[in-house]
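User: Could you walk me through two proteins back to back? I'd like the raw sequence and the structure tokens for each, with a short line separating them so I can tell where one ends and the next begins.

Assistant: Of course. Protein one, sequence then structure:
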Amino acid sequence: MPSFTEVYNLQCKIFEPATANLSEKELNRLLMQLYEYFPFFDQGEGNKKPYDTDQDYSKKWFLAYNHLLKLLEIRRQESKYKTSLYISISAIIISIAGLLVKVYCP
């Protein structure tokens, strides 16, 4: 299990303004790293028990998790909007080209 310092450093990195500019792949990498720091007690023999949700460590972990999920959702929406924009621009160009062909080549 990682130390609290490692977890808090990762959480600080997640909430830095520069993190909002990371690519979807980099955000997924941060999310996988955060998964490794999931708060649990090792009860032996491979049994794990999650920390209580009212503990400070768990609250901060879930805040970081929710923040990363929101950033990932924003990235996915941006890519959808960009694709839609490119398709719209292509449709306009094709329509203009078709109109020009009709006008100048009777």
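----
Protein two, same layout:
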Amino acid sequence: MSDVSLSAHMRVSSSRSAPAQAEASWSTGVDKTFPILPSSTFIDFSIGPIPFKVTFEVPLTIQANAMAHAIAEAEFGVTSQYVPLCAQNKSKSNFG
């Protein structure tokens, strides 16, 4: 936004501003399996040529996801005022 104004005493005022915006996203994930109890044979026998085998195991599976999203906004600006030297002298003589 820009604004310029003039008055009867030759003063110039101006301002300027600029908005800024930033946005970022981040994500990660973990999928891991740990063998708490490794595979162990529970039953193992054969009836003639036919084998029978039963195993037992306990795995631990961990799944985790994380996501982040951030938005930042800012506005920067400057304001200035110009008063010529002759207008400053008149101003002082009128009030003092």
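The CA atoms of residues 86 and 92 lie 10 Å apart.

Let me know if you want the two compared in more detail.
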